[in-house]
Amino acid sequence: MKFTIVGAGAIGRLWGCKLAEKHQVQFWTRDSTATTLSVDFTPLDSGQELKTYHFDTNNTVQLKAANCVLITVKAFQVQQAITDITPFLSPGIPVIIMHNGMGSQQLALQLLPDNPLLYATTAQGAFRADNLLLNHTGLGQTWIGALNPAGTAYKHLATLLDQVLAPCQWHDDINTPLWQKLAINCAINPLTAIHQCRNGALAKPEFDSQLDQICNEVALVMTAEGYPTRGSNLRNLANKVIRATAENFSSMNQDICQQRTTEIDYITGYLIARAEAHQIQVPVNTRVWQQIKQLEQNYNDQ
Ligand code: KPL
């Protein structure tokens, strides 16, 4: 199959290298003058050797001929990414959108009325050590599911993705795994960014009460949204990820550290917006949202 991957961040590059083993892959990047992209990929299994991949980029002919487009930009870049590719995107071609957080779905549906639309969420870990080097830092579950009726015909894409980077499964209601990942991100990302610590540091008792409260608030909102759960279930999920990714720095930690816009408005911000819609109070999440916004505003002062 011919893939165009929009966005050359860590997760885009990870899927690019994996897909390239069996399929034709090009990247679509923000730098429209770039025509190639090289990635030195270090596999998870330390026994396997580093391999260099070379990709074409921003080739409109390849985009027009793509059988599938995978968008891996951050949530706040989705609108721009779709606008950029739309002139070259053939109608009927499935588009998969994969990012942390929620809240871009409505816009994507409006901007892509003629394409089967799918969303995906992944717990795969990848870290860009520099411009060239990409480390695969952790295996994790990927879920994919349809967002519009046309997307339901593309269940086989879950199998295709599973063949190159397992485990990947289809979900009939993609909002279920999206909410679960949102809960994990609400728990881990802001705290690791505020305290500039690794994910594993959140296992310390000093974070217990705040993590409990964050998860309890998320559970109230999820239940009101039609995804009933308990705070203790979400806390267990978050604990598992804290342990499994103990050595990693969360994406929000890295964004704050490198003074980049974070995904807070699509993680905790989305939770707060849905809480408001249901008239649910989420004071602890609101507090961490404010703290991250403050840290972002401080960028300019330095
Ligand atoms: O998705 C993540 C992120 O860093 O954005 C978690 C699950 C927190 C893993 O680091």
Account of the protein in words:
With 302 residues, this protein is of the alpha/beta class. It folds into two domains: 2-172, Rossmann fold, CATH 3.40.50.720; 176-301, N-(1-d-carboxylethyl)-l-norvaline Dehydrogenase, domain 2. It contains eleven helices and eleven strands. Strands 8-9-3-4-2-1-5-6-7-10-11 form an eleven-stranded mixed sheet, sandwiched between helices. A hairpin with a 4-residue loop joins strand 8 (125-128) and strand 9. Helix 7 packs across helix 8 (231-244). The longest helix is centred in the middle third of the chain and has 20 residues, at 175-194. It starts with a strand and ends with a helix. The structure holds ketopantoate. Residues 100, 184-185, 188-189, 199, 241, 245, 248, 250-251 line the site of ketopantoate.
Q: CATH topology of the largest domain, what is it called?
A: Rossmann fold
- Which structural class do the helices and strands define? alpha/beta
Walk across the major sheet and give the strand order: 8-9-3-4-2-1-5-6-7-10-11
- The overall pLDDT average reads 96
**CATH structural architecture of the largest domain:** 3-Layer(aba) Sandwich
Helix content: 40-55%
Bound molecules: ketopantoate
